[in-house]
Write a structure and sequence with these properties.
The protein is mainly α. The chain has 3 helices and 2 strands, in the order αββαα.
Length: 75
């Protein structure tokens, strides 16, 4: 049960952080060939490593929660 809660909180934290980062990047008026680009703004400000870190936290949290659901030895 503890693994499920930890994994769920990690997944929630990672996904909310991704949403805030992607939403905040669209608040700027940066365009590429006349189209708004969230990833263009993220790379322009050097936040691609932060994006990858948040994505890794969300994926690791998902697999921890999934492993906690499958684990039968946890009392």
């Amino acid at each position: 049960m503890k693994k499920v809660i930890l994994g769920s909180m990690m997944f929630l934290t990672g996904s909310l952080s991704l949403a805030v980062l992607l939403g905040g990047s669209m608040a700027n008026d940066g365009t590429i060939n006349g189209c708004f680009s969230a990833f263009g703004n993220i790379s322009k400000y050097g936040l691609t490593s932060v994006l990858h870190s948040f994505l890794a936290i969300a994926v690791i949290g998902f697999f921890i929660a999934l492993g906690g659901l499958v684990d039968k030895h946890d009392p």
